[in-house]
Amino acid sequence: MLFWIIAAVLTLGASLAVLLPLTRQTRARDDASHDLEVYRDQLGEVDRDAARGLIAAADAEQARAEIARRIIRLDAENAREPKKASQLGPRLVGMIAVLAVPLLSWGVYTAIGSPTVPSQPLSARLSQKPADSSVDELIARAEAHLVANPSDGRGWDVLAPVYLRIGRANDAVTAYRNAIRILGSTTARQAGLGEAIAASAGGIVTSDARIAFEAALKLEPTDAKARYFLALALAQEGKISDAAAAWRLLAASLPADSPWRAATEQAIAQAEVRTAPVKEAAGAPAPSQDDIDAAASMSSSDRTAMIEGMVATLDEKLRQNPRDPEGWVRLVRSYQVLGKTDLAQDALGRAYAALGRDSEDGRKLTELAGSLGLDVTE
Fold first, then answer.
1. Which residues have a Cβ under 8 Å from the Cβ of 47 and sit 6 or more positions away?
2. What is the largest CA-CA distance in the chain?
3. What percent of the chain lies above the pLDDT cut of 70?
4. Is 59 within 8 Å of 131 (Cβ atoms)?
5. For the CA atoms of 281, 287, 293, 295, what is the dihedral angle to 10 degrees?
6. Global confidence as pTM
7. Does residue 322 form part of some domain?
8. Which residues contact 158 (CB under 8 A, 6 or more apart)?
9. Are 278 and 324 in contact (CB under 8 A)?
10. Residue after which a domain boundary falls, among 49, 80, 112
11. What is the number of domains present in the chain?
12. What is the rounded distance in angstroms from the CA atom of residue 258 to the CA atom of residue 295?
């Protein structure tokens, strides 16, 4: 109801601001007509006083002349504004239009608008059930709560990964730090902090991020996220072989359904391209720095094609010289990383035939195949 009262007052004020100038000229003409009637009455009075002898004839003549001058002056002023009378029509149209605009707008809004829907201020929306709220409203609700309760570590702990997921990396760093300060360190908080710091730095594992990941590993040495990013830090420092070795160890320890398996296997494949271990295993000369740089700058499709060519070369080499345990390990893993499970399974069978399933090399292959999700019973 308050809205309608305010709207009515504002509409009335705006309409009067436009209407008042349109009425001024009409009032001016009415004033001129009134003055003319007054002058005529004055002339009649002078004539009556002269007839009764109340004033001298000379004074009466002088009074008539003065009143006549005023009438002439008034007529002259009206004559200088001949167009004003013709402007009555446009002014009338303008007045009607000014009055029609608010009436029409209110009528249209009442017909197609929603005047009965109550307003929904932020406080009211934040107080509704979480299931009925959007993600932004839930975040706003959590932020409002934390402004009023900055020592609520649980709130910071819940909000931090949400910030990271929606791309607000700097806010995620702050939330993780507050959660650690209030609730203490856990593997998930330290690893999340490291990931948030890296995300805020454009994907670079900085020294602060490394410290957070190392703190996570002290609490849980098998944490996949911390191990993955610490290997990434080695790759960013140019230690591609060390990074590849760390990723291989991580891949061997990950369960088949781990969310980090795909990222780790992709990282291994890219590291192997940059160091060209398949070329060396196939007896090809070691790549030059230009070859490594070129491979690193390739598109994803070109890099995949290059890997497939190198894997095919290794496969041919192992057909000619099957007594190469490391070559079989690379071949099985490479086929699986490329998504060619049938070829990986076939390579595993040929490796068993060449090395023996029960030999030490065969047992290593069985362990690798199990980590890659291959069938070791065939």
1. 60
2. 155
3. 67
4. no
5. -40
6. 0.45
7. yes
8. 142
9. no
10. 112
11. 2
12. 28
